[in-house]
Amino acid sequence: MLIGMPGMPKSTFKGIKMNLSDKAMLVRLSISQWTARRLDVQATREVIQNYQAKPDAGRFNKLLVDVCAVKRYQKAANEARVFHYANTLPWGEDDSRILPAANYSKYSAAMREYRAKFDAAVDEFIGEYPGLIGQAERDLNGLFRAADYPSAEALRFKFKFDYSVSPIEAAGDFRVELAADEVDRIRADIEGRVEASVNDAMADCWARLYGAVKHMADKLREPDAIFRDSLIGNIGELCDVLPRLNLTGDPKLTAVLDEVRAALVPLSPDKLRKFEVERKSATLAADGILAKMAGYCGD
User: Fold this and answer.
1) Which residues neighbour 55 within 8 Å (Cβ) at sequence distance 6 or greater?
2) Quick check: 4 pLDDT over 60?
3) Which of 12, 193, 196, 224 is the most exposed place for a label (fewest CB within 10 A)?
């Protein structure tokens, strides 16, 4: 587990605290969708009585429509969330994430596509909704309750896909009529939180890369392990996105990424599966990179 970046000097953040708002922004992704599930109180009561169980022993939640229909818009939402987390960095304690300016164009273009895909899946679901209710009436039989189903018009309001961008607070922007020492204290607090968030964000970059390379090395060390092409593909994707997430322009991260890109990304998954000598060579390369990262990032 990566616990910090002792190799990164404190002075790295001096400029960032003053101009982070020029380098990045905050983004929040909000996706709402109909769960298509409902607690059935009567069925719960009957099951508990049947088995003479404690009153709080369980709850019976029924799926209101065919699960395949629901999974289509859930899949679109999940893909958007995966992309959102992969292309942003942690920030504070709320749902906001850091979006570096260098990654804004790629992020916003992709999110527009994900939103269009989600909206299309929702439109398809709404169009099928009357038929899905009819099918549910047959499938649920005695568990069916017409009151569990909102109208198609009301159902549409249960879906939302939105992402919002806002500026990052800066200590220099804090202006209010307070005693000078109070203003200084609040500004210092803002600076401290920004510095901590930048530290966490950069640690996240290192952790992603370290985790992917370690996973590859561990797999290659197992003679009977089965691994897929994604073992290399995932590392290639990280080498593509992490330079755009490198908030501080950390030269050590850039150097390690260059080494990963040269030593690991070009490897052939098919050759690694077939030839032991290829696996051993790749394992040595991965171990060497891990040792270098451990020196930068901690154990």
Assistant:
1) 48
2) no
3) 224
